[in-house]
Description:
The chain contains twelve helices and twelve strands. Strands 8-7-6-9-10-11-12 form a seven-stranded parallel sheet, with helices on both faces. The protein has a five-stranded parallel sheet with strand order 2-1-3-4-5. Helix 4 links the parallel strand 4 and strand 5. Helix 1 packs parallel to helix 12 and helix 5 packs across helix 7. By secondary structure, the chain is α/β, with parallel strands linked by helices. It folds into two domains: 129 residues, Rossmann fold, CATH 3.40.50; 182 residues, NAD(P)-binding Rossmann-like Domain (Rossmann fold, 3-Layer(aba) Sandwich), CATH 3.40.50.720. The structure holds NADP nicotinamide-adenine-dinucleotide phosphate. NADP nicotinamide-adenine-dinucleotide phosphate (NAP) binds next to helix 5 and helix 7.
Amino acid sequence: MTKPKVYITxxxxxxxxxxxxxACDYRxxxxxxxxxxxxxxxxEIPTVAGVFTLLTEKVDEExxxxxxxxxxxxxxxxxxxxxxxxxxxxxxVMVTNTPGVLTxxxxxxxxxxxxxxxxxxxxxxxxLRQGRWKTWYPMLLTGQDVYGATLGIIGLGRIGEAxxxxxxxxxxxxxxxxxxxxxxxxxxxxxxYRPLDDLLREADFVSIHAxxxxxxxxxxxxxxxxxxxxxxxxxxxxxxPLVDEQALYLALVQKRIWAAGLDxxxxxxxxxxxxxxxxxxxxxxxxxxxxxxxTRVKMATTAAINLVAGxxxxxxxxxxxxxxxxx
Length: 327
Ligand code: NAP
């Protein structure tokens, strides 16, 4: 029996390749550090039944039209804002993601970023390496306390909850904003619901964990930043476009908020021309929220399992558009 054909848009961990090779004939973009060029992807997909994608691939109407045989787009990420979900459903294409396996790793990174930003770790490291450390003095490189502070979580889902659990170890008061109340977590974690504006007014740290969707684009803009305390820290490990970067830059320069810790940007990879990178009160990371060895392997194998299920007539475990499933 001939195996279904699939295309893989990047070099992925061996364990995931083995899963795919067991059930499919695959072709692959063999580079790790460069995304597959769009024209190559458009040439590769007309004959395949499934495609393994990363968040660097835009799966839109044009791509779906060029892929009449594709049954599944298996995205190696929990977020799927790179995929036009409505278009995929219209074309009868299943879309899958990799929820859960990256939750704790991304929450760890969020907390690392929160601590690094609050306590100015990167600035302090530079200060030392540049030979500027001449003496100890009372207000040298002073930051904000994390222990006992108020944390406002925007999007108390899987990662937001994992961040809230870590915050308990720092005796933080946890506020959250979601479209739906999480009374289970209010009981278990002592999290308190607040409308967004109230959360922004009260929080010492605001951490964003809502997904990118049309209604969350620029959820944090000039008006929202103006509600925050001058000592507040904004952390974003979700998706860059949830924050209006121009408004954030002005708020930071004018010291209307204390600092920002960013793992994600409106345009990625971030340009060195981005003025946020010139600010000492910004800690910037290259989208490494889920980047532990074990988690990246789990994400790749989860996406591989979804892909194989989708091209062999089974319902994939992590289907995000049930409309794409033809049963
Ligand atoms: P999740 O479990 O689906 O949680 C998302 C939360 O956001 C839910 O609590 C949801 O609650 C809330 N939400 C959705 N729309 C909202 C809106 N319009 N306003 C306010 N809250 C809203 O997702 P997750 O697994 O925690 O992942 C969250 C996001 O993190 C992903 O979408 C991805 O973009 C990002 N991420 C980034 C990295 C990284 O490397 N930096 C790694 C992993 C994930 P309601 O439905 O009640 O509103």
